[in-house]
Amino acid sequence: MDALVSIRNLTKTYQRGSEKVEVLHGVDLDIPKGDFVALMGPSGSGKTTLLNLIGGLDSPSGGEIVVDGARIDQMRSGQLSQWRSNNVGFVFQFYNLMPTLNAQKNVELPLLLTSLGAAQRKRNAEIALQLVGLAERGKHRPNELSGGQQQRVAIARAIVSDPTLLICDEPTGDLDRQSAEEILALLQSLNRDHGKTIVMVTHDPKAADHARRTIHLDKGALVDGLVDGDAAH
After folding, report:
1. If pLDDT is split at 50, 70 and 90, which confidence band does 233 have?
2. How is 87-127 classified by DSSP, letter by letter?
3. Which of 53, 146, 179, 190 maximizes the CB count within 10 A of its CB?
4. pLDDT of residue 159
5. What crossing angle do the helices spanning 147-159 and 118-131 adopt, rounded to 10°?
6. What is the CATH number of domain 34-60+86-228?
7. pLDDT digits (tens, 9 = 90+) for 14-55
8. CA–CA gap between residue 233 and residue 227 (Å, rounded)
9. 81-101, pLDDT tens digit by residue?
10. Contact by Cβ (8 Å): 55, 83
């Protein structure tokens, strides 16, 4: 498979007071199109930083990030923002839904940045909600939905623009085990049946088991010998 994400000699340094802290150093990584990767590592290992760099939420201090042929490490802020809206769907631990909007309107939000008219935005949101099993819940606001249902709405919002890449940061971290399993099965289906490339940060080995492979980080570097191959599906 062709690499959708290709990372070479990636570094990220933050300034904390007078001290420079190198969070990532010399990371090389290829993620093939259609892959489902779990990023694991102890707190402070750099996994969320790496996720944010792949998703264009942050810029590296050095190195190269190519996503679907685009050198995102060379993009300016405005270019990166446009690239994200066209190419990446984000799923976060705490859903980040607008409490005053119903599920359908929440899912429509990314489409407001496009040239689609109101009728087409509504239709696309309905299709996305159907895909995550919430076709009948479009008129419900977040406080009328369970945690698992809210995360399904968040996933529908992430896929409504048909992005190339799904970025998931602890997507089951705030859910009970049954809801977590349902969300992970949904992500598997999006990967297996709809060809979505998924990169997921998780601290939960059971969640990582749903990915095709697991990549371990420690102290800002990939851990040699700890890139696990195809997990059972």
Report:
1. very low
2. HEEEE-TT----TTS-HHHHHHGGGGGSS--HHHHHHHHHH
3. 53
4. 95
5. 130
6. 3.40.50.300
7. 888 888 889 999 999 999 999 999 999 988 899 999 999 999
8. 17
9. 889 988 999 998 888 899 999
10. no
For a pLDDT cut of 70, what percent of the chain falls above it?
A: 95
- Alpha helices of the chain — where are they, by DSSP H? 47-54, 77-87, 103-108, 118-131, 147-159, 177-194, 205-208
Q: What angle do helix axes 147-159 and 177-194 make, rounded to 10 degrees?
A: 20
Strand 88-91 vs strand 70-71: parallel, antiparallel, or unpaired? unpaired
201, two tokens:
């940060």
- Are 36 and 229 in contact, with CB atoms under 8 Å apart? no
Residue of 152, 227, 228, 216 whose CA lies nearest to 190: 152
Distance in angstroms (rounded) separating the CA atoms of residues 139 and 158: 18
* Residues 93 and 101 sit within 8 Å (Cβ to Cβ): no
Q: Which of 169, 174, 108 is nearest to 187 (CA)?
A: 169
* Type of residue numbered 101: L
Gap between the Cα atoms of 59 and 112, Å rounded:
25
Whole-angstrom Cα distance, residue 55 to residue 34? 16
Domain ranges of the chain: 34-60+86-228
